[in-house]
Amino acid sequence: MTFPERLPIPSEVLDIARTLEGAGYETWCVGGAIRDNLLGVENHDFDLTTAAPPQEVQRLFPRTVPVGIEHGTVAVLDPRDKLHEVTSFRKDIRTDGRHAVVEFGVSLTDDLARRDFTINAIAYHPLKHEWRDPFTGDADLKKKLIRAVGDPNWRFREDYLRILRALRFSARFEFRIHAPTLEAAKANVAGLAQLSAERVRDEWFKGIATAVRVSKLLALWQEVGAIRIWLPEISVQGEEGRGKREVDSLPRDPVLITAFLSRDPAASLTRLKCSNQDIERGRAVGHWRDKYPDPKHLPDVRRWLSRAGGYADDLLILPSSPVPLPKVVASIRAAKDPLTLKDLAVTGDDLLAAGVRPGPDVGATLERLLSEVLEHPSHNTRAHLLSRV
Length: 389
Prior knowledge:
alpha+beta, five-stranded mixed sheet, elongated
């Protein structure tokens, strides 16, 4: 093993480690920050694992949050109110693929043995500057390899979300997935159906945000079979497949990318239990993405902007947007052309005062006037519009 002599551990993390070690509890840094620092990726969010049981961690520190105490995780607040996760050494004694029952009071090696991939099973002692790498994760980092700790079938059956994590890490670091690990992911992919939508959504969204190329993440989800289970509206094969190349040119906006890729964005985002706002955003993208106006006809562009509303900017980003359209839209916005009922120079009260009957006639008249000013913005004056009532 060729590890650096020291890692840049934040002082607040060192203070927590000193307190635990001072009380007689072996304590190590583990997790993504170790992996990222070895890869030269900046990450100072160091998690700690310790021989201290959760209740002892709570006793030793005056300010804690039981973020996952049933699984041994207690967050310790530092003087700046930042949370640092401290997890007791543990091993799984029972799992259903979504939830695990764990046992505390085991060794560091036992704790590392329950982790998902070798590159995440490396420990560093922040005070003694010692390393533990029982599953040769450092060698896999150098080989650019995602490999399960131990039997990959068992690793995935412990928690099926690990399948999606393997795909995310592969796309993020451009690492190859070890053949037995990849085959085990495919063999156990049906287990993904047991996961909560929230956990799957978070993995999909994090994957989009961190992948070097989103198209690579998409291809991995397709190869393993995760797309079929959770995002069946996304097709990456044949003439109807969206985004096989264009997706990499889009901003890293998970909702927008999901909507762009899906034949039915609202269905995909609903299945992932996204917010109502995100679902409506996806619905608008799905409705308007094939209905762009002719950029050469300004009234059509204004009508399109009026109807697409706040979703127009999403639509302008998509590869299907006509090339001149963003510039035309910018000129219309710069001119402050009226686009909505609120932009009209008259209100419903003005129409009532002018003799329009209360009720539906007011709304219908406003819509008619808006249609006129979308065609001729210069007509948007109080005098002219009242003359048209």
